[in-house]
Amino acid sequence: MKFSMKLVLSTIIVLALALGFSGFYFVNYVFETSLDREVGQALDESSILSFAFETAALNVPLKYSVLPDSVVEEIASKLEMGGRSEGRLLRIADEEQNVLYTSDGFTADEGLLPQTDQHTKSYRVILEGDSYYVHTCVSINTLDRILYLETMKNVTEVFTERAMGFSLYRKVTITMLLTGMVIMLVIASLLTKPIRLLTKATKRMAAGDYTYRARQISQDELGQLTRDFNGMANALEENICKLEEEIEAREEFMGAFAHELKTPLTAIIGYADMLRSHKMDEEKSIMSANYIYTEGKRLEAMSFRLLDIIVAKQEEADLQEIPVQELFVYLQEMFAEKREMDIRFHYEEAVVQAEANLIKTVLVNLVDNACKASETGGAGSGTEDTAENVGVVEVTGQAADEGYRIAVKDYGIGIPEEEQHKIVKAFYMVDKSRARSKNGAGLGLALCAEILKIHHSRLQIESKVGEGSCFSFVLPMEGRGTYEE
Predict the structure, then answer these.
(1) Shortest CA distance to 229 belongs to which of 200, 252, 208, 250?
(2) 8 A C-beta contact, residue 79 and residue 90
(3) pLDDT tens, 215-271?
(4) Which carries the bigger pLDDT value, residue 379 or residue 410?
(5) What single-letter DSSP state applies at residue 89?
């Protein structure tokens, strides 16, 4: 059953109970009030009749010392005649409760007589046939006799009015319940509309439409629930987009990895098969062995880089205070024998927060990439100023507001703008043929990005095709000075 119907039915049940109890109490209260009034009138009339009987008895001739039965009957007959227009019914019994006079239509039994004495009046409401009566009984003490006067007053109208009241109230109650049901259906529909909208949004999202949002139509608790649902949907959509991107990146990674493995393995297997199955002169044998060695070293370098990336993703950097000079001296020693390149160092002395070995790996990769990009002929399409700087790599360190910035700049081939956000992915290479000729696999920048990530930094790239590239990152800084070479 729908929530709106539950709301309507529960409201109708409560309303029906409330109207039923209140209606019963009201109609019954009116009935009891009317019945009490009729009983009071019947008792008053009984007292009046007993007084009239006693008065009439006093007018009996003195020759009777005791009131005879015939006189009792005569007085009773006159009393009945006097109230015939009012439908007066009476009955008189003697001391032995023997009936002396009874009006036509007086059908009540004698059950009330034993309950009546000289000092009490008694009454009851009885049903005779289809009519209701107030049956009263009172004692009369006159002329040394004790008589019992009973009356019957028709109160059927009071009971009829009660039945009509209940009937009318039932009709009013049913009308009010039906009207209330219609009104509650409208109210319940309005109240549960946010729930229906949330249900629709949930079904749309379950079907794969993660961009769908529930429309907020109120500012109450259900409105807050809608806002929270939409907030959850936003977070879910972001997470799903990230998962899809990760899956896509993983698929690209696996494809690139398989391709990168296939190329050197094909060369290794091919040249090894030539050495195994053919007799070749010394020169060709050395060339084949050289190809096998070169491709093997490439596979070795690629495996080590992949291992470094995996480790970097799982590690947390152990930050220590490191003098910048230590990093730059290490680079100078690493690239001291690279005579064909003009590597220039300029840095401000300072102390940074980093893990030395990991940051050295980042710097070596960046300088090595810059050297490859700056080889002669790499900037043939650049400007005159760029052409003059072919073979130049600038490594700088400078204090900035956000920390200590280290930058590696070359004047080489540059990177197209649409490729710049992809080059930190594993196995991605802008110029694949050139990278493979240098035993590259597109893993260096991916490793740099992962190392900087655990240092809470990131690789910033500025590049123009034919003019060169600048790779930089920022580390937390302690002190500063200046050094230039």
Answers:
(1) 200
(2) yes
(3) 888 788 888 888 888 888 888 888 888 888 878 767 766 666 666 567 668 778 888
(4) 410
(5) E
Report the distance separating Cα 388 and Cα 384, nearest Å.
6
CA within 13 Å, CB half, 397: 27
CB 155 within 8 A of CB 80: no
Output the DSSP codes for 370-398.
HHHHTSTTTTTTS-HHHHHTTTEEEEEEE
The Cα-based distances of 37 to 30, 86, 153 in angstroms read 11, 17, 12
3-state secondary structure of 478: strand
Alpha-carbon dihedral sign for residues 434, 437, 443, 444: negative
What homologous superfamily is domain 3-170 in, according to CATH? Answer: PAS domain (3.30.450.20)
Distance separating alpha carbons of residues 412 and 342, to the nearest angstrom: 13
Residue with tokens 């260096």: 444
φ and ψ at 323, to 5 degrees?
-65, 135
Task: Give the 3-state secondary structure of residue 146.
Answer: strand
User: At which residue do the structure tokens 């690493």 appear?
Assistant: 334
Q: What is the pLDDT of residues 362-385, one digit of tens each?
A: 898 888 888 888 764 444 445 555
Predicted confidence (pLDDT) per residue in 67-114, tens digit:
788 888 888 888 888 766 677 888 998 888 888 899 888 888 888 888
Please answer whether residues 445 and 312 qualify as being in contact, where contact means their C-beta atoms are separated by less than 8 angstroms: no
- Beta-carbon contacts of residue 338 (< 8 Å; ≥ 6 apart): 371
Provide DSSP, 330-354. HHHHHTTT-TTSEEEEEE--EEEEE
With beta carbons less than 8 A apart as the criterion, state whether 42 and 136 touch.
yes
Structure tokens at 158: 């009071």
Cα–Cα dist 420/143, whole Å: 134
For the chain, how big is the Rg over CA atoms in Å? 57
pLDDT in tens, 432-477: 444 444 444 456 677 788 788 888 888 898 988 888 899 999 998 8
Does residue 213 carry a pLDDT above 80? yes
**Alpha carbon distances (Å) from 382 to 159, 386, 389:** 114, 6, 10
Domain(s) labelled CATH 3.30.565.10 in the chain stretch across 315-484
Q: Please, which residues have CB within 8 angstroms of residue 286's CB and are 6 or more apart in sequence?
A: none
Q: Where in the chain is the domain with CATH 3.30.450.20?
A: 3-170
CATH homologous superfamily of 315-484: Histidine kinase-like ATPase, C-terminal domain (3.30.565.10)
